[in-house]
Amino acid sequence: MGTYEIPAVIQHFHSSNPFDAYLLLSLLLKSKTDHYAFIWEHVKECFIKFTLEGVLFGNGIISAPSMDILRERVQNAERVQEAINAVDY
């Protein structure tokens, strides 16, 4: 499953066995094609729909224009621990 499919998974769970909220985790790397923009546009529209419908979610999708920047963002362990602390209450 990739970033594009996240909204479908949320929709499935929310309609059949809803959670109080959802934490969305994924990596999205920009490439030389327009695929990145297509995926982000789809996900953005779904996020707007979820927000208007009152579906609570945290966006943990990490995107970057290059592999080096993506690695930097992923390897930032302080942010990972902050996220774990935020949901482990």
From TrEMBL:
GO CC aspect terms: riboflavin synthase complex
Pfam family, one: DMRL_synthase
Pathway this chain belongs to: Cofactor biosynthesis; riboflavin biosynthesis
Keyword Mitochondrion in annotation: no
InterPro entries in UniProt: LS/RS, LS/RS_sf
EC number(s) per entry: 2.5.1.9
SUPFAM superfamilies: Lumazine synthase
Keyword Transferase: yes
Alphabetical UniProt keywords: Plasmid, Riboflavin biosynthesis, Transferase
Gene Ontology molecular functions: riboflavin synthase activity
Entry superkingdom: Bacteria
BP term (GO), one: riboflavin biosynthetic process
Family as reported in the entry's similarity comment: Belongs to the DMRL synthase family.
Protein known as: 6,7-dimethyl-8-ribityllumazine synthase
Species, as recorded: Legionella adelaidensis
